Automatic annotation (TrEMBL):
<dbReference type="GO" id="GO:0005737">
    <property type="term" value="C:cytoplasm"/>
</dbReference>
<keyword id="KW-0627">Porphyrin biosynthesis</keyword>
<dbReference type="InterPro" id="IPR022418">
    <property type="entry name" value="Porphobilinogen_deaminase_C"/>
</dbReference>
<comment type="similarity">
    <text>Belongs to the HMBS family.</text>
</comment>
<dbReference type="Pfam" id="PF01379">
    <property type="entry name" value="Porphobil_deam"/>
</dbReference>
<keyword id="KW-0808">Transferase</keyword>
<comment type="subunit">
    <text>Monomer.</text>
</comment>
<dbReference type="InterPro" id="IPR022417">
    <property type="entry name" value="Porphobilin_deaminase_N"/>
</dbReference>
<dbReference type="GO" id="GO:0004418">
    <property type="term" value="F:hydroxymethylbilane synthase activity"/>
</dbReference>
<feature type="modified residue" description="S-(dipyrrolylmethanemethyl)cysteine">
    <location>
        <position position="240"/>
    </location>
</feature>
<dbReference type="InterPro" id="IPR022419">
    <property type="entry name" value="Porphobilin_deaminase_cofac_BS"/>
</dbReference>
<dbReference type="Pfam" id="PF03900">
    <property type="entry name" value="Porphobil_deamC"/>
</dbReference>
<feature type="domain" description="Porphobilinogen deaminase N-terminal">
    <location>
        <begin position="6"/>
        <end position="210"/>
    </location>
</feature>
<dbReference type="InterPro" id="IPR036803">
    <property type="entry name" value="Porphobilinogen_deaminase_C_sf"/>
</dbReference>
<protein>
    <recommendedName>
        <fullName>Porphobilinogen deaminase</fullName>
        <ecNumber>2.5.1.61</ecNumber>
    </recommendedName>
</protein>
<comment type="pathway">
    <text>Porphyrin-containing compound metabolism; protoporphyrin-IX biosynthesis; coproporphyrinogen-III from 5-aminolevulinate: step 2/4.</text>
</comment>
<feature type="domain" description="Porphobilinogen deaminase C-terminal">
    <location>
        <begin position="225"/>
        <end position="297"/>
    </location>
</feature>
Length: 310
């Protein structure tokens, strides 16, 4: 008798379907187990309110976890950057697959890069982190809040409503739209969200056989990198909408694997920021995240995050 297909709970958005489909294929090719996608609708998908007003992207996560708890699905896939930093009860982070490009990108009119857009150009982003870092560049662009899926956001550029929008490269890439990118930001200018470009595969903690099966998808370098970034975020006690950027890169040294963590905390109006970095070995991920956060706080990070745009 063949085993029943594993049920993978997913949101219906094109990005979520692409991410879930990618993980489903990886599971099937590794284990021979069939995987079926089960669609789940979340409050975040149906609400037109600004994400920051409905409690951040955590709303996407909760509906999937509820379906896990209810036993309606066997496992779920999230964009790791959308996960709140707290550990959920009864759920295991079974795998963090190899990360895609973590950087942010610009999709602008006429193939232009950011510095080619004149002062006064209209740039859209719904992310306070991206808005603050764009303002810090001092190019005189007008930064406008937008939301919606990738199609909607890029659509504002195609229709001429905006001169450019900033998005995650990983999202565009997973949708097969990477060729629409007009500039990939150097993390020196634009640090991504902690966890950006990585996926999180979760299942019920009590399902030991499934925890073991999914562990085959895990990439230890990616797991360490996102642990460093997310520990930093947790210590800063910043919500997912706070202007905090962090990127941990992994480099194979001769003896040890090295981590290089960079972070920025800015105020939302992009007039002030603190930017620091740290290095450590692979097993020091949590430590360097914690210590770099402490250093940022010592240099005034909490005051910056507390300020509000008038
Ligand atoms: N905030 C929504 C969201 N969550 C994950 C991605 C992209 C994929 C990723 O970063 O892993 C996006 C879209 C974006 O930020 O452009």
């Amino acid at each position: 008798m063949t085993e029943a297909p594993l049920r993978l709970g997913t949101r219906r958005s094109a990005l979520a379907m692409a991410q879930s489909g990618h993980v489903a294929e990886a599971v099937t090719s590794r284990t021979g187990r069939a995987v079926e996608l089960v669609e789940i609708t979340t409050h975040g998908d149906v609400s037109r309110e600004q994400l920051t007003q409905i409690g951040g992207t955590g709303v996407f996560v909760n509906a999937l976890r509820d379906a896990l708890h209810a036993g309606e699905v066997d496992f779920v896939v999230h964009s790791l950057k959308d996960l709140p930093t707290g550990k959920p009860e009864g759920i295991t982070l079974a795998a963090v697959p190899p990360r895609h490009d973590p950087r942010d990108v610009l999709v602008a009119r006429d193939g232009l890069a950011l510095a080619e857009l004149p002062a006064g150009s209209r740039i859209g982003t719904g992310s306070p982190r991206r808005a603050a870092q764009l303002r810090l560049l001092g190019l005189g662009h007008e930064i406008l809040p937008i939301r919606g899926n990738v199609d909607t956001r890029v659509g504002y550029v195609r229709s001429g409503k905006l001169d450019g929008v900033v998005l995650a490269r990983a999202g565009l890439g997973r949708l097969g739209r990477a060729e629409e990118v007009t500039e990939t930001f150097d993390p020196l200018h634009m640090l991504p969200a902690p966890g950006q470009g990585a996926l999180a595969v979760e299942c019920a903690a009590h399902d030991a056989a499934l925890v073991e099966l999914l562990a085959g998808l895990d990439d230890s370098d990616t797991r360490a990198a996102v642990l460093a970034e997310r520990t930093l975020l947790a210590v800063l006690e910043a919500g997912c909408s706070a202007p905090v950027g962090a990127l941990c890169e992994v480099a194979e040294g001769e003896q040890v694997t090295e981590l290089y963590l960079r972070a920025v905390v800015a105020n939302v109006d992009g007039t002030d920021s603190v930017r620091l970095s740290a290095t450590g070995t692979l097993d020091e991920a949590e430590k360097i995240g914690r210590e770099l956060a402490a250093e940022l706080l010592a240099r005034g990070a909490s005051g910056l995050m507390g300020e509000r745009v008038p």
